């Protein structure tokens, strides 16, 4: 429809988006992710009544403000005219809107290259503050990527398989690799949260299918509980993130406990594997060929050596 428009928004989890266009041109406006807070402040300033009624109005994709209104507030703005057959790529947390100059057809896809992981983690923390549901488990995606990378490092170092896939994973590992940094940052966050727990709260082992059977989100802020979850004996089917564990009930703290998928030592070993330490690669690569059947030895905290165990020891 001529002059139909789409409102200001960012992609879920601050993902990249890529969309082609067929037909009449589409006029697109964009604000970079670094200036997203400035756009949000401008929107709240110009539409105070709407935001008072709906504090998270920008998540609804129903709010429009003219580019001139944003520019008057000092928000840097970019404009592009997308013709038939051309692609537009939006970056993490980049607000975009626009209108159609006539009949056209477009489709969009979200993509998550490795450099998005940092932005995705920021999105998850922001969603928690906004009490907004996530559409995917960022931690599951992050750890899944780490395990695939470790398997690639193992194949390179032990089997000498210099495939394109293995070399691609290697390029984002190492001490300064993008994937390594993302996992290391996440592990530090988890370690800090555990350090703030009362001493009487001893972590217990989380079942591997916990998030499938229990929803995997905090009852209060909807934070992803793939790695850690708090629970009280009085409410066995209710879970929270560590930040909202006190909101469960009035029970004594001794009735509460924490479920933990991996210990901090295990997560740090995974980081060392991504950094390239041989012993850690052998330790962590064991179950990456079967992502859904990884088992942890509760006594030793080590992955069971089921695949190539003899070759691994010799290496």
TrEMBL record:
GO molecular function: histone H3K4me/H3K4me2/H3K4me3 demethylase activity
Pfam families reported for this sequence: JmjC, zf-C5HC2
InterPro entries registered for this protein in UniProt: JmjC_dom, Znf_C5HC2
GO biological process terms, semicolon-separated: regulation of gene expression
Occurrences of domain JmjC (ranges): 1-128
Assigned GO CC terms: chromatin; nucleus
Descriptive protein name: JmjC domain-containing protein
Organism: Prunus dulcis (Almond)
């Amino acid at each position: 429809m001529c002059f139909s428009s789409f409102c200001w928004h960012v992609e879920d989890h601050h993902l990249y988006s890529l969309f082609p266009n067929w037909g009449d041109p589409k006029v697109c406006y964009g604000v970079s992710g670094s200036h997203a807070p400035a756009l949000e402040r401008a929107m709240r300033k110009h539409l105070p009544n709407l935001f008072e009624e709906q504090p998270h109005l920008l998540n609804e994709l129903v709010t429009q403000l003219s580019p001139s209104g944003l520019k008057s507030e000092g928000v840097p703005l970019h404009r592009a005219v997308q013709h038939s057959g051309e692609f537009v790529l939006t970056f993490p947390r980049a607000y975009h809107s626009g209108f159609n100059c006539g009949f056209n057809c477009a489709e969009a896809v979200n993509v998550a290259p490795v450099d998005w992981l940092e932005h995705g983690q920021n999105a998850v923390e922001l969603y928690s503050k906004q009490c907004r549901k996530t559409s995917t488990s960022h931690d599951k995606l992050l750890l899944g990527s780490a395990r695939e990378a470790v398997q690639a490092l193992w194949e390179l170092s032990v089997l000498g398989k210099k495939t394109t896939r293995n070399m691609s994973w290697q390029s984002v590992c190492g001490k300064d690799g993008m994937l390594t940094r993302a996992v290391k940052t996440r592990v530090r966050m988890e370690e800090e949260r555990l350090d703030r727990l009362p001493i009487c709260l001893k972590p217990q082992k989380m079942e591997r299918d916990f998030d499938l059977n229990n929803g995997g989100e905090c009852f209060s802020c909807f934070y992803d509980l793939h790695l850690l979850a708090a629970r009280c004996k009085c409410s066995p089917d209710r879970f929270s993130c560590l930040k909202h564990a006190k909101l469960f009930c009035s029970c004594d703290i001794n009735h509460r406990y924490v479920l933990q998928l991996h210990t901090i030592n295990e997560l740090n070993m995974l980081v060392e594997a991504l950094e390239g330490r041989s012993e850690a690669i052998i330790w962590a690569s064991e179950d990456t060929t079967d992502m859904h059947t990884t088992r942890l030895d509760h006594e030793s905290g080590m992955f069971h050596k089921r695949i190539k165990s003899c070759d691994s020891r010799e290496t």
